[in-house]
Amino acid sequence: MRARFSALRLKLGKSKAEDYLSGDKETGKPTAGAGNPLAAGGYEDKERQLIRILEGHAGGVNAVALAADAKTVVSGSSDKTVKLWDAGTGKLIRTLEGHGRTVYAVTLAADGKTVVSGSKDKTIKLWDAGTGKLIRTLEGHRSTVYAVVLATDAKTVVSGSSDKTVKLWDAGTGKLIRPLEGHGNAVTAVALSEDGKTIVSGNEDKTVKLWEVGTGNLIRTLEGHEDAVRAVALLPDGKTVFSGSWDYTVKLWDVSEWTQR
Questions:
Q1: Are 209 and 182 in contact (CB under 8 A)?
Q2: How confident is the model over 167-181, as pLDDT tens digits?
C-alpha cells in the first residue's frame, strides 16, 4: 500500500515566477502583475526589507542552521569551513576549520552546545559550539556526506551520503551503530522524529524512505516524486512527512499508519 499524500504544487514556471516577483528595476518595488499580491499593497515595504548580510565565507554557502533559541546561525561552505554567527548582530563568532573539502551539511544541537557538519571529505565532525574545538570525527562513509541531523537528546547522529546509505552513529563515542541500506542513489536529505524512533531519508532515486531507528529496518518507501528528493521534514508528532523535489513539488505524506504503532 502506498502512502496517502497531497502535493503542494509550487510549480512556478519561469514566466510565472517572473510575473509573481515582477518589480520596478530602479526602486525594487512591486509592479502590477497577475498573481502578484505585493502590487496591490498587500504587504508593507518594511516587512520585505533585508535584515542583514552575514559575510565572511570564501566560497559558496551550502547549508545553514538556526539554534533553537534563534540566537546563533551556523553555516557550511565550499571554503571547507563552518562558521558560527550572532543572529542578532550578524557578527562572526568563530570559524571551525578541519574539513578537507566542501561542507555540505550543518546542524546544531537543541541546547546549542554542539555543531555537527558533513563534508565532501566523507566525514562528519562534531564541534563544541562554545569553544570551537573539534570533539570527534565520524568516519565510515565512502563518499560525500550531504545530510546530517542530531537527535533531540544529542546522543545520536544520522547522516546521508552519496554512497547510497544512511548511517546511525553514537554521538558520545563516534561509533557506527548501523548502516541503513536500500536507496538506489545518493541520499541527500535526512530527518529524525522528535521521539528518536523514526528516520526519514530523501534520495536522488526519487523516493522517500522511513526507517525504524531501533532495528534499522525499512518501514516504508514513499513513491510519487518524478525527480530527485532534496529535502525532507517530519512533524513533531511523527504523523506527517514533507518532501521537496526537483520535480518542482512539495509533497505531504500521511505516515501515521506506520509510525504510530
A1: yes
A2: 999 999 999 999 999
User: Which residues, 6+ apart, have CB-to-CB distance to 115 below 8 Å?
Assistant: 74, 82, 84, 96, 106, 107, 108, 109, 126, 127, 128, 129
Sheet with strand 103-108: strands edge to edge: 103-108, 114-119, 123-128, 134-139
pLDDT for res 30: 41
Q: In the chain, where do the E strands start and end?
A: 4-8, 61-66, 72-77, 81-86, 92-97, 103-108, 114-119, 123-128, 134-139, 145-150, 156-161, 165-170, 176-181, 187-192, 198-203, 208-212, 218-222, 229-234, 240-245, 250-254
pTM: 0.81
How far apart, in whole angstroms, are the C-alpha atoms of residue 99 and residue 21? Answer: 38
In angstroms, what is the C-alpha Rg of the chain?
20
